[in-house]
């Protein structure tokens, strides 16, 4: 049994007594001066005596409690010595008021004013030690937070990007849980158990008991173990405030089970069905990624631009009534370079482009590479080679590429691999080998590659 810690934990029980007694003496002094009454002298003296005794007791018990460790040294220094200052000033004020020390009439009021100010400062640093630096302003309106503390932050909601492929698991899902439910006791100012949870480095460093996150095993991770204990347990976390919700517990468990990565995106690997359901139910986030053209907006193409495009052999249709993107198809055979160059008139608006079987050559593909919002490109059955495909690497949002019946080989896949947005590729009736396709699939498992029908030999 540690008798020092046992006694020290009575510090919160009596620490408010000197605050009340000194403030009472201060208020009686103000009232006596205003009413010019001497009848408060004995009451003020008695209140100061009780304040001095309780302040001295608070200092002693607080000193014992601090030996438990886990407190920020700087904050503890100020709280400790300001508290000692309050005790000494209160004793001095009692001695002056009781006539034990001869002093002018201005000394007692000045001493009490200083004592009240020190009580406020001591209480502030005590609150920081107990609840963390953001406790006072955590739920305050934004303008108050800004005035009182540059570093204070409100209770952080889990607010997710609308697109699931933009969600970072730790940043958007796990960090808000830790910040809301754990950081009040585990920060730079208050290091309960020697543990800080305000950064990746601190989390990985763990606390006095060692690591708190065991990647791949939540049930051996202290961070998870503490939040699923019965709330009656002394080790249950958080000890104060709202416990983690079912959803927060499941997210924390899933994050640790998956390796506790601090960089992983939500869709980097398959999601358990339970997490999909949880995200949809609690955060209204579907894990189905919307097509690029549904996520961005462009200005409508001018009537003059559409007319020019039609005049050189293209047909255009609106992609949908909800956006200004166009699906464009070449109707003329064997186009010239100038005809293809006309596409730049509506380069921002073209998102689907069909040039299949129309005599397109490698020399024309640099123009196609300048269509910034192209998501679907059909250039099958044309004289396209590996060299021409290199020009398509610039298409940052291309999702569908049809190259069947062209003259490409394995080398073209090196360029195609650089189109990170691509999810559908057609290469049947080309010189691309099955080995190259399998190698690309290993690098890009989410890319669907259609290489035509594969027949097994039948003996």
UniProtKB/TrEMBL annotation:
InterPro entries found in the cross-reference section: Cyt_c_Planctomycete-type (IPR011429), DUF2231_TM (IPR019251), Leu-rich_rpt (IPR001611), LRR_dom_sf (IPR032675)
UniProt xrefs under PANTHER family: CYCLOINULO-OLIGOSACCHARIDE FRUCTANOTRANSFERASE-RELATED, F-BOX DOMAIN-CONTAINING PROTEIN
Alphabetized UniProt keyword annotations: Membrane, Transmembrane, Transmembrane helix
Residue stretches making up the Cytochrome C Planctomycete-type domain: 182-241
Transmembrane segments annotated in the record for this chain: 13-32, 44-66, 78-96, 108-129
Domain DUF2231, residue spans: 10-128
Keyword Membrane assigned: yes
Pfam family, one: DUF2231
Keyword Membrane attached: yes
Protein name: C-type cytochrome domain-containing protein
